Amino acid sequence: MATASTSVSRRSPLRLPRWISLLLLVLLLAALGFGLWLYTVARSALPELDGKLSLRGLSAPVTVTRGTEGAPTLEATDLNDLFFAQGYVTAQDRFFQMDGMRRYAAGELAEVVGEAQLEHDRQQRILGMRQAARKTIETISPDDRSRLQAYARGVNAYLESHRDRLPIEFRILGYSPTPWTIEDSALIGAYMVEDLSTSPRHALTREKISAKLGPELTADLYVNSSWRDRPPTVMRPSLENQIVPDQDEDEDDDEDEGPDNSVASLLAPLRLLPSLLPGSRVPPGLAWLSGGRAFFDDPPLVLGSNNWVVSGAHTVSGKPLLSNDMHLGHQMPNLWYEAHLRCVRPGCTSGTTGLDVAGVTLPGYPYVIVGHNQRVAWGFTNIGPAVEDIYIEDFNADGQYATPEGWKQPEHRQEIIHVKGKPDVSLDVVLTRHGPITTELVPGETRNLALRWTLYDGIRNPFFAVDSAQNWEEFRQAFSQFDAPAQNVVYADVDGNIGYQATGKTPIRSSGDGSLPQRGSDNAHEWIGYIPFDKLPSVFNPSSGIIATANSRITPDKYPYSISVEWEAPWRSSRIYRVLESGKKFNAADMLALQTDVYSELDRFFAERFVYAVDHAKVPSARAKAAADLLRQWDGRMTAESAAPTIAVHARHELARLLLEPKLGPAPEDLELRRRTLNWKSYRWMMDTVWLENVVQRQPKRWLPEAYANYDEVLAAAVQAAVDDSTTPRNLNSWRWGKVNSVMIQHPILEHIPFLRRWTGPGEREQSGSEFTVKAVSRDHGPSERITVDLGNLDGSTLNLVTGEAGNFLSPYYMDQWSAWYRSYTFPWPFSQPAVEKARTHQLVMEPARD
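RE: above sequence
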């Protein structure tokens, strides 16, 4: 029988042409070669951590002991050697960051990055940041100059010994850094003053809004106090005794009861009341490759710093606890550099105890900025004072400007900006008696606007005296020499004392408060002095045993001077006091729990109002009712996995639009046009949420839009607009707050190398918290460190940074602290010599070089 044979066709393997195969092989080898080159260069730049190092510039050996997280303890027998070593060790770990910060401040980025940074450089040159740094150098004492010079010598000793193995970023950008100078350290100080300054643009926007709306509505918008304010010098036993100010006649008398004040509830999620009654700034840092913050930008300064101190009456140990988390723009590596400076032999200081201080330092600047020594501890939050004024100068056809003495010829400063791959750019900066003409920095402005700024007077450096202080009197004397950026300082010492001191130079004006631009041709609004240090708010050992600040109002009623025209809203400070006044005996772990607290009193307040409005709407949509149900069940915590915070925040933004748009007009889609024209988005104010709360509580007729019969209709419409927005998901339960409020941290250069990106920064992550929670966070802003000092046992203190000590991505200390920051735990912070020795992982001895 014949058998049918089945033919099976087999395809030959796909064969690429020989030249394509060779090309792919070459590309693969090139990629491997490039990766090997990156690894080799980066590895060569890792710092020496063990052994001995011979350095010119030292007079005696210095020991550098590193602990578990890589933070150095520097021990020297001479102060100049100590600060030399601080400069060297900081440069080992952070020199590219230091160079980027000084270039950012001075306006010298285009020279190494290119034309994309020309606009930023023009801004910094007009502002005159390098000139301000030179003025600072003129004001410092000979001793401070000597210590700054020692620090610079240490930086340059590192630089000269590592010219062939500098951080990889220099190789990628193709430039070699210049030596470090004391002027560069002063620039780092000026950088921080600029970063923590409020925007003078607010005075110009306020001027336009006032002209359009009149005094009554403008006064509503630019509110600068709240019944929730807790000035640190005003002692009140409990928020339960607070009386809400009288409300408008058309306001409902019911008031939000606030969170349950029991100890258990304060440190745990809070539940909504069952019945809801009616009426009840891209940071600079090392993100400089993608542009920095415009000095005359629209958004308000982003704040979020917290500090507090509790006496032994409120602690388990019977001694004070002091906590601080300064909130700043994220960068990679993080801003602060942890260090411990020890020089305890005779002759190290003018006193008898020597210098023994630990905390966070600013790369490029000597000393410890925030931390503790063997007797006292301190922490900062920004005051945000009115220290910049805008003057409108009148010029004539001959280029002269008007003064009370007649027409005067302005000065001119010529600036040359080097641009990589392009011709140099010349810039003529015009200077009046008030300061530089800054008109070109303000979109849409044609008037000649001069900027006066306390930075231009120079800023004194008190930190050696602060680091050395042994008691409250020495501490206050040191901070009496602190000019800027003005800070709220909390204090504690091992004897059990606690205190608070406001610092900084704030102008006294002949009239006005700096909230509006003024004519420059007369002396009606000139600065006539500064608020005397002994008149700044201060308190020592208050009867309550509790002091806290969170950028909100610090002045009591009837305070005789104007410090700030724009305090931060008091949501965080109110929450902190509620927890600290609970009656609980606290330990360091409780302090961390409060630092990472994500309960939002603001958003819970609005959630209640939104729910009531939707419940009483005539015909609410199914989506609006679903949103209300999610808000009804919400505990007020801004957790990443929850949808309710997203609904509350978006509905609040829509409510602001519904109220403001009829008064100020719609916002153009074009961003540049929006910046140049007055519209509802022009209103930016750090207490804008207090204005909104006041409107919802008091329900004044002057703010009720004509299209609505009452405020409940407006609130319900805000919820509807939020859920109908094109960006809102169909399933409201999937609208996760963590996705909306994610955090993004990456290296500005190495993130552009695909196969390195995952190792050079955390990237984008969902996060809990908001700008109004104690854990104040946004996409590019958050706690830059978390510190708690236990004055009963300094070795029981804790500290963690955002990512780590090192700037080299191959270092084990590059991102080893990220998980702690992100997941809300922390690290022991050894201080005593036995504790430092016990935690030792590396030790390097720097020795004087022999000729």
